[in-house]
Amino acid sequence: MNPGPDTILVESELQRGLDCGEVIRVYQAVVDLSSGAPRYVEALLRWDHPTRGLLWPRDFLPDGDADGVLQVRVGWSVLIEAARRARRWRALRPDRPLAVSVNLAPSQLEVRDLAARIGHLLDDNELEPGALALELSERTMSAGRRARDKVAAIRNLGVEIVVDDLGAALGATASDDELAQAAANLVDARLAAAVDAVKLDRRLVERLATTPALLAAVVERAHREGTPVVATAVEHEADALRARAAGFDLAQGFFFHRPSPPEHIDALVARP
């Protein structure tokens, strides 16, 4: 499929933005709920556009990118920078090793030599196992045996695999019980793929106020396999308290940390 004129225009403008340093990386901590210490730092992308202001990826990586050209190009640049940051932050606090996680788009998983390229990236930055993590959507994890084999090959390199936004595809009109049961089934299915953590979708986490026991059961299923569970969109202290009571291991949200430039993470890592 040939790209249309709008896609070509976006590609050209985005390349200019990359060359000019307008496309920036910010990082948000994922903390251990028991101690508050950062466990992961997720790499996030923003485009400080000269006329449109601060853009999120959904604003400049359009669905019309049928061939995934933009996602692969930009995604690889994020991976390269994440590896460099992981090396720096681990050197700052070798006693409290931090992993940097990066979202991997389905189109990136289609890159033929992806595992080899990631292996070279790890070697070039002298990163030990667990220093880098990839976050994959349910759709990516369910894309067939070929995709699962690629994910397994990457995991064998020592890269942690996190299922992102588990339950995002569930219907918005589903009842609390239906959502909780479906999430439990999804946890079982994803754990069969051997992953290192799962992040529950924010709509499920928001149900903690009404269905804490059922969501605690979802977390318990993951714990049977030794897999930690992340609560996303933790915006207030009450959210953190509910997540902790339900047994979540990790949490991410504005209550703990906002997406920040890398120098702020330097200070976070250096804290006692």
Describe the structure.
It is a single chain. By secondary structure, this protein is of the alpha/beta class. The protein has a single domain (5-270), classed as EAL domain (TIM Barrel, Alpha-Beta Barrel). Helix content is 46%, strand content 19%. It has helices at residues 5-19, 57-60, 69-92, 106-109, 114-124, 138-141, 145-155, 176-191, 202-205, 212-224, 237-245, 262-270, and strands at 23-32, 38-49, 53-55, 99-103, 132-137, 160-166, 197-200, 229-231, 250-251. It has an eight-stranded mixed barrel, surrounded by six helices. Helix 8 (176-191) links the parallel strand 6 (160-166) and strand 7 (197-200). Helix 5 (114-124) runs parallel beside helix 7 and helix 8 (176-191) runs parallel beside helix 10. It starts with a helix and ends with a helix.
Structural shape: globular
Could you tell me the number of beta strands? 9
Topology order in helix (H) and strand (E) letters? HEEEHHEHHEHHEHEHHEHEH
Q: At the third CATH level, what is the topology name?
A: TIM Barrel
CATH class: Alpha Beta
Number of domains: 1
- % residues in beta strands: 15-25%
The separation of the N and C termini measures 53 Å
Taking pLDDT < 50 over at least 5 consecutive residues as the criterion, the unreliable ranges are 1-6
The CATH architecture term is Alpha-Beta Barrel
